[in-house]
Design goal:
This protein is mostly helical. The chain is 73% helix and 0% strand. Helix 3 packs antiparallel against helix 5.
Length: 206
């Protein structure tokens, strides 16, 4: 119940945010609740004992560190260029002006939302598998539904960048910052590796 309440509070709080940094902060609460589901599954009697819950937690946290780290890093970069907070309005049309930044940010949003081929998807799959194996079917179903709610605000970011026109007078400085670019690129690669080739991180997934 604590895990589901934490997921609900985080997702509902993020759903009404327009400031991207606040949105990501609230979503972090929801992700903490998701991790708690693995602990709940272990306590409820997961047949794989501690290994199942521990592996799921480690994988989920690894995917979240690279995904959220990359997302927050790009938000900080855009804030410095814009000279103010990054909102859904300021992100409109970003793909036409900063295609690389938009692509990386979109990847991070999709991973946070648990879209397949990303580390976030497999992390959520492993956590919900712990709940299912332990017999908490109803809890797993509610958790999945709450994850679907999260897609509502993650996809808004993608829509703003790729499907909405840029607002006049809201331009980024378009500065080339190599360290930030390399860091975001490294996080994006890790997110894809965790989603497409998970066996290198947890061999039992091969």
């Amino acid at each position: 119940m604590i895990a589901l309440a934490t997921m609900a509070a985080g997702n509902l709080g993020a759903l009404v945010q327009t400031d991207l940094k606040r949105m990501l902060a609230y979503s972090g609460i929801a992700h903490a609740g998701t991790i708690l589901l693995a602990a709940a599954g272990y306590l409820a009697g997961d047949p794989q004992k501690l290994d199942g819950a521990l592996n799921a937690t480690l994988y989920y946290m690894a995917a979240y560190v690279f995904t959220a780290g990359g997302a927050f890093g790009l938000v900080a970069l855009l804030e410095s260029e814009l000279g103010g907070p990054v909102t859904l309005e300021t992100l409109r049309g970003l793909s036409s002006r900063r295609p690389g930044v938009a692509a990386a940010l979109a990847l991070f949003m999709l991973s946070l939302g648990g879209i397949p081929a990303t580390g976030g998807f497999l992390g959520k799959y492993l956590v919900f598998s712990v709940a299912v194996r332990s017999g908490m079917i109803a809890v797993a179903v509610v958790g999945v539904l709450l994850s679907v709610v999260a897609l509502g605000y993650y996809l808004r970011v993608v829509v703003a960048m790729y499907m909405q026109k840029e607002l006049e007078g809201r331009r980024f400085a378009n500065e080339q910052r190599l360290p930030a670019t390399l860091a975001a690129g490294a996080c994006a690669v890790m997110v894809l590796l965790l989603g497409l080739a998970p066996g290198w991180f947890l061999p039992y997934l091969d």
